[in-house]
Amino acid sequence: MNVLVWLTAILFLLMVLVGGSKGARSFIALFLNFSVLFITIMIMLDPTADPIILTIISSAIISCITLFFINEVNSTTKAAFASTVITIVILIFFIVMITELAMIQGFGEEEIGELYIFSFYIGVDFVKIAASVIIISTIGAITDIAISIASPMREILHHNPSISRKELYESGLSIGRDILGTNTNTLFFAFFGGYLALLIWFKDLNYSFGEIINSKVFSTEIITILCAGIGIALVIPITSSITAYYLVKVREKEGDLSK
Amino acid sequence: MKVIVDYFKRITYKQIIMCSLLAVLFTVSMLFVHHNYAFYERPIAKVIETNLLDTTEIIDDNDNEDYLYTQQITAEIKNGDEKGELIQFTNEYSTSKAYDQEYHVGNELFVSIDRSIEENEILTGTINDVKRDKYVLMISWIFIFTLLIIGKKQGLFSIISLAVNASLLSYALDVYIQTANASLLFISGITVILFTAISLLLVNGFNEKTYAAIVATLLGTFISLSIAYLVMDLTSESGLQYEEMGFLTRPPQVVFMAGVLIGSLGAVMDVAITMSSSIFGLYEKNNNIPVKALKTSGMEIGKDIMGTMTNILFFVYIGGSIPTLILYLKNAYPLPFTLSMNLSLEVARALAGGIGIVITIPIGLYTALFFINRKRAKS
Questions:
Q1: Which CATH architecture best describes the domain B183-378?
Q2: For residue B202, which residues of chain A lie inside 8 Å, CB to CB?
Q3: Overall pTM > 0.90
Q4: What are the pLDDT digits (tens) for A207-233?
Q5: In 3D, which of B356, B58, B42, B75 has the Cα closest to residue B229?
């Protein structure tokens, strides 16, 4: 049997064993997210479709699946969802700008070796594709942080019903700071693992420091890692403020109703 | 106004020193990277004029429409013997820009100069690459400032941890490349132990919580690696296409396994520290909490983080292959071939990482319980 089938089966089994029905839901969510990504790529093939808008829409759907399907629709997940989408929109314009400036789109000369038989005049805007790659790579982490900040904030409000919006915001920030280190580590190592083959190859090529830092392939990797880090940091204040605003508004509404 | 004055009053000397140090570093490095032409051996030219000469519509063999533009570029050479002289290039680019580039006034390019020209004639040459160092530096600074402003002390630790881990990885790869017959898996194994100790101690300090997390991380990573190894061995790696690593002159299986090991490490560490700090947190709140209650709460926490953590790995790995997938499909390669060619390794890596994440939940739980029981026995 195929390696992928085996690994998928083992992962499914473990998720159900450890996580029960929630584990099964998480597994299905992975599958659904994969399908959304697949459909997005299929639509991206059409040169008239704007990859940026497509990325924003599919990120929204992906974070919907992750937040509402694995967890449930409540004030926390709604706030986390809004924060994720806002962060993505801010981040994507920043990334498009960077990609255009640093000209890191498409393929580098080191990658072209085995691709030389391909036609590169395919009409799809690779600057926008490059930006959407960075966003798609980070969307999982951004959603994770948003929910990790929003849920304890609701607990804090629950235990201190009279907390002010500002205090709630501050506690959100402090939760965010506490998880910042481990979350950036998760992403950095994931990228390192993915880039390992390329890193070894660059070492084999004996490039000088100047050649490495300026080469398209390597600078793309650094810029992707750094943009992912910026995104992870950015989602902390955004989630804290939106969740604080939303939860306090909900509290006031409920207060009005009970009067 | 008073708010601002109060704000400045609260700033300590330490912060002032830190800020001035950052400002100096920022200014010096930005100035350097904009004037470092002399440090490069390759000739650098700065574009001072561009003219669009020609636009043609092209349709390739697979009916993809694109436009091909030809631009004439005049640039000034910034280093070497020809410093200050003008040079001309013709450059072709398409709207898709997958393997070409439109240049604008102000761009700095690495070029090669044609030597065989007569005197008093304008130099000509070819463009090799773009000078990207200033952009990499600029984004590094944006990253540093964002993390420091939002994350404060924790942001600083994240930056340090990235820098230390990246240097460690680079050093480990150097060792691997320079030593004949060195086993990459062995070197990665050692590096993983160092990575785990450094990152977790840096973020969480020296305490039992961290020790429990380190033990759980190492157990989780190596067990998941063994599972992946066993599966690959039993199926004789059927379904894995190593062609995308075709450029490597080294055995791709080993490189792939080392990638799995390092790639899942961050996520596994995250799970391990989340499990151990929440269980220790419950224990510290109530020293007499029964083991059974700790187990139940621990599993609940594990269930909550399982889904999003596996998601993170999936998107990191699959996201990166989007451009190649589009290139293949636009070149009329059949979908199953394209997917198996470009995604098999990424999906396998994500699945193996996911297995690591899920298996670390019970491992993290029982390691933390072990440490708590030892603590209880002592007191």
A1: Up-down Bundle (1.20)
A2: 181
A3: yes
A4: 888 899 999 999 999 999 999 999 999
A5: B356
